[in-house]
Amino acid sequence: MDSIERNARPVDLLLKAFRQGKPGAFDAIVRAHQDRVYAFCARMLSDREEALDIAQEVFLSAYRNLGGFREEASLSTWLMKIAANRCLNRIRRRNSLAAREVAFPGPGEGNEPSFQPPAPEAVQPDRVAEIREVGKILEEALARIDPDSRWLLLLSDVEGFTYEEIASMAKIPVGTVKSRLHRARMALRKILAPVV
Fold first, then answer.
1. With 59 labelled, which of 26, 28, 30, 177 sits at a CA distance of 20 to 30 A?
2. What share of the chain is helix, strand, coil (3-state, %, to 5)?
3. Is the separation of the CB atoms in 115 and 136 below 8 Å?
4. pTM for this entry
5. What is the pLDDT of residues 107-131, one digit of tens each?
6. pLDDT (tens digit per residue) in 11-57
7. Which domains does the chain have, with CATH numbers?
């Protein structure tokens, strides 16, 4: 193993192994990123079953296109961009169908599970209930924000992507990302104002 490989990040080695056709390399890529992709999709869609479907589509698309991945961004950024695009397409399709048919139930109106942030094991039951309630409030508030703003908020404030990474994913200037995020945060703050 040369010094370049010793200094390579594990994801770089996985990409190299995948491109060389080594068995199990793609499975390792999926294992390394599946939780983050699924969590992002669940927050975007407010539906765990749809999130599972979209997460599978993300990795299927990645498998088909990974050979052409040019590494202009990190692999996780590339996967999150695929996830964001798939989620936005699903939301648009959902909204289109709802407009033609019956109104789609909003958060809390259907049988979809609510977002429940993980709680530390030592937390008392009343604290767990409070955390779940806050998660439900945030989920409902996020669902009221337009999908394009929602995915920017999630990428920045939940996933921790930089403005530059988001600009690359959204194919818009960094200044536009900042202004849209500001407007999205103000909209979220306005929705949450009566509650907090």
1. 177
2. 70, 0, 30
3. yes
4. 0.63
5. 455 554 455 555 455 556 666 677 7
6. 677 778 887 788 888 898 899 999 999 999 999 998 899 999 999 99
7. 7-104 (1.10.1740.10)
